[in-house]
Design a protein that fits this description.
Strand order of the largest sheet: 1-2
Strand content: 5-15%
Distance between the termini: 42 Å
Largest sheet: 2 strands, antiparallel
Helix content: 55-70%
Number of strands: 2
Structural class: mainly alpha
Radius of gyration: 21 Å
Order of helices and strands: HEEHHH
Shape: flat
Amino acid sequence: MEKTRRKVRPIARKRHNYIYLLLAILLAISTVYLFLNFPPDYSFEIANIGIPILPIFLASSIGFIFSACTFIFIQKAQGIILSLLVLVYLIFRLIGLTHWIFAILILALFITIELFVLKKK
């Protein structure tokens, strides 16, 4: 009997999206610039309205973490989960919840969310 050979397809690799890398580099530069050049209580004056620098810094740093993690892990869900983890931790630090139990609880929550997302796929 003649054996038939099955065609074996190579494992398809997901490609990196280099737009996320470019975005990560730009947001890293802006985050470092804001961190080094402005104090935390600084506010921009635009038309007699003071815009604080802290939300701009948080948005820039979270955008950097999201785009860097999305480029590295190739999945947007993991980028969103990790950036939200950092955002929640930084907000807890800002409001004074600095005990180590809070960090462990946040980490456990986000590990559970990550496992839930992986189980859905």
